[in-house]
Every structure is written in structure tokens, then in C-alpha cells.
Amino acid sequence: MTELDGWGVIMNPKAGKRSSDKSLSVKDELVQAGLNGEFVFTERAGHAAELAADFIRKGVRKLLVVGGDGSFSEVVSGVCMNDGGAGDVLLALLPLGTGNDWCRYWKIKKSVSWCADIIKRGKTERIDVGRYEESGADGCATRYFVNSLGLGFDARTVRYADLVRKKFSGKAWAYYIAVFASFLMNKSVHSKLWINGSLVLDDKIYTVSVGNGPFTGGGIKQTPGADPTDGKFEVMVMVNPSWWQRCKALVGLACGRLQACGFVKYFEAQSVAIDTYGLEAERDGIYSDEVKNISVSIEKGRFEMIVP
Question: Are residues 200 and 281 in the same domain?
Fold first, then answer.
């Protein structure tokens, strides 16, 4: 058996700007490149996690995700909730989504032949995963994220982006409309923030980004010091900014100088807890509504991933 054999391939036919016909074309290209395994297609939100769980139960330990950050995040969740903590699953990603922030950090290309080549090469890294316990309107839940967890401004932007993309499918500029709308509408919410068990903030919080990776929003570096292999998060918090400070923060984000804004706080953390009433949440670009309490921890080296 070679490195290209025995894969479970989970494909999102709606990732990025693709049609079902293009997804079948990608499948054919992967087969022609020598990849062998079982190909399955997602049909709805959350389905990638279910398909990953099915593969794990069948004993498949190599999964290739063809899609974007959200699809990869769902597969990671499906793995983490069904592998019994073994950490013996190997993941690979062919990035065909819109933002592709996770792949941006790893410099993974949107090329089928290139993807097959790095799988053949077999270079891997052990990757950290964020685990969080969430309570909200829908009750309590355990979830996972691989790139980032956002609350407040981040989450509202994701919610608006989902709405705009339904109207303007596949348009990259739809995200910027969502950013502007969120800038106008998002409000600070009184919350308490604990870092590594210590209360560090009891104030009105505008936005929080818990970064395992540095990029969000299609290349924006909100947490530039985040490294998904070092066993810790970088946490960015903006506390009750004025209108002028919000404008300054947007410019800082666009220019990569957010850390220079004195009203933006940064922390290193292995655990994060937030008590809040009304902050919306998202993980890896997947919206999950308002939360009341959230507890986040890092699981170091949780899975292995093919890297260039």
C-alpha cells in the first residue's frame, strides 16, 4: 500500500464558487493523480462531521477534505468526537473554499496535482485543536475548532456574510459588505473573561478572537502570533471601543497593525472562559448563535496533518 491508498475523501460540492459538475471533475483529477479510496459528498451543513465519524467507525484513518475552512473544521470535529482520543488520524486538505485561512498559514495550494504530490511526500505535523463547552439558547454543547473561535464582531460578520452570500453566491466582496454591516450594528456586551483560570476582564466586550492560527476573514491577521503547534492560543480582545477606535481598528486590521492599537488587548492562553449575555459566536467561519457561558481549552497535537 502506498501513501495514496486507503483514503476517505470528503468533498463539499458547494465550497467556493464550484458546481457539482466541477466537484466531479476534481474527483476525476484526484483519481487520475493516483489517489485511491472512498469518495463521499456533503449534502448539508454539519454533514462533513457525520461523514468523518462514519469513516472513523469503519476503521479509515486517512481523510482528505476537499472544501474550505468550514468543511475542514467539521471533519476535525467529527474525528475528535469519535476517535476515542487516540489521535491516530491523518488529515489532508485540498482548499477549494472562499477564505481558506487555515491553508494560508500552511501555504497549501489549490491544485489537485500539488495536493497529490505532498501526500506522496508524506511530511506531517501534529496539530493542536481547540475544544469548547458552550451554553446558549439551544442548551449545552461540546464543539471543536482548528483555526479560530470568534465572539461579538467576528461572529456577527460571519452571520451577515452567510446572508449576503445567499444573495450573491461566490462573490468575494460579499464578505466586505458583511464587515461594514457588522461595524455599524455590533454592540459591546458586558462580559467576564478568564485567561488560564484568572479573571482578566469584567467589562463591555466588543469582540474576542481565540486564535489557534493567525488568519481570519480571508487573510486578516487578528492573532498574528498564533501557532497551531505550540500548545497555546493567542487571544485578541477589544473592550468597549468608541466609534473612532472602531474605525482605527478596521484600518489596523486592513494594514496588519492591529497590535499597535492601545485599546486592543492580547493574551497567551491554554484555557479561556467567558461569561456573557448576548455575544454571538462562530468557529472557523461557522455561526453558532448567542452564547451565555463558554469554556475553551487546547488539545495539543490532537491529530496529524499532511503539510508541504
Answer: yes
Provide the residue range defining the domain that includes 146. 129-299
Answer with the one of 67, 97, 122 that is the final residue of a domain: 122
Instruction: Report how far apart, in Å, the C-alpha atoms of 85 and of each of 16, 130, 300 are.
Output: 32, 14, 11
CA distance 308 to 305: 10
Confirm whether 308 is domain-assigned.
no
Per residue in 198-229, pLDDT (tens digit) is: 999 999 999 999 999 999 988 888 999 999 99
> What φ, ψ does residue 165 adopt, rounded to 5°?
-70, -25
What pLDDT digit, counting tens, does each position of 91-127 carry? 999 998 777 899 999 999 999 999 999 999 999 999 9
pLDDT at 3: 82
27 φψ region: left (φ > 0), alpha (ψ -120 to 50), beta (else): alpha
255-259 own/partner pairs: CB under 8 Å, 24+ apart: 256/221, 256/224, 258/221, 258/222, 259/224
Indicate the angle between helix axes 112-121 and 20-32, nearest 10 degrees.
40
Phi, psi of 227 (to 5 degrees): -135, 115
DSSP assigned state of 261: -
What is the C-alpha to C-alpha distance for residues 179 and 169, in angstroms, rounded to an integer?
17
